[in-house]
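Entry type: protein chain
Record version: 2
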Amino acid sequence: MQRVYLDNAATTKIDPRVLEAMTLALRDNFGNPSSIYAEARTAKKSLEEARAQVAALIGAKTEEIIFTGGGSEADNMALRGIAEAYGKKGGHIITSKVEHHAIIHTCEYLQKQGFDVTYLPVDEFGLTTPEEVKAAIRPDTILISIMYANNEVGTIMPIREIGAVARERKILLHTDAVQAAGHIDIDVERDNIDLLSLTAHKIHGPKGVGALYLRKGVRMPPLIHGGGQERGFRAGTENLPGAVALGKACELAAAGFEKNNAHMKKLRDYLLDGIFEKIPYVKLNGHPEKRLSNNVNVSIRYIEGEGMLLRLDMDGISASSGSACTSGSLDPSHVLLAMGLDHATAHGSLRLTLSPETTKEEIDYLLEKLPPIAGFLREMSPVYKAEAGACGRQELKNCAACPVGREK
């Protein structure tokens, strides 16, 4: 059976060139970077080359990159570190209601430690505005953490403008760029960013390695106490193969940036047009223009997302009904609820995320299989028959007069 992988926002297939670099580091470059003999010096050189590759992707200085165990660790390191370092100055943090759970749950933890957190609302497209951020700032605000691009609906936040607000008020800005890095032109200097999180497995690298950009001069206590690795911020012998792989993945993402994004955007728009042409009662989730080039998120009304995913998998198609970290939950997406969707519509969400390797033939295969799946599941829905069939039209095609017709 043909397999079509369309869940690249959850994780990506490792690039053969990344795997080769990682394998060489595992096999040949075994020295401890903290030692002084030849093997150690070779390992240290590779580590710093990888650090420079990561820095180049986001316009940072090499010494401002701290290797971590992934994006969630980088998020925790940023929020908890800044809270501890600047807590005496003030106890207020600003974030949004649509952040990844690595941010939201860390903020909830900090609230239990006595910090006050403002969770900003978003509009129907999932956007938080600079004006809303500015209005939420208080004299005791120490940190603003707004994601660069949403992992579920693909909406791109106005980070540069939010960064300008933060810089004007002398407040630190952190952004979770796990989904954005490699897909969006990021420059931490231009965008006024003080801390930024990214990870390898979203850009065709391995799982279990990421990085935190920490602007020079920003104070933060160690995440892990021990030796002096990673400028003293994260003790422990470095994961050299992982760091080398992340560096290579960043280098490749930068080199293929324009070509890859143009390819994915073309297929994304082709996929969206096909879904709306072939399936009635579909709602686009996220901003129609300010969105990641590889992200398609729609709500197919009168369908449970879980049943849709199972049937897609039976046809060889891998997809998601929300963020991968919560796909086992029966609760609807907190992102979609924050955008104003009702529970039933949110439950029918489908996230399809592409990669540079995705082909038109694979999209055509999905467009062949998805409509009959939607039709089959809707036939079992009494709500569908009561609402969509109320006009008496058996074909149930898009109708401008229908209150639950095509939405875009």
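Comment: The CA atoms of residues 164 and 220 lie 22 Å apart.
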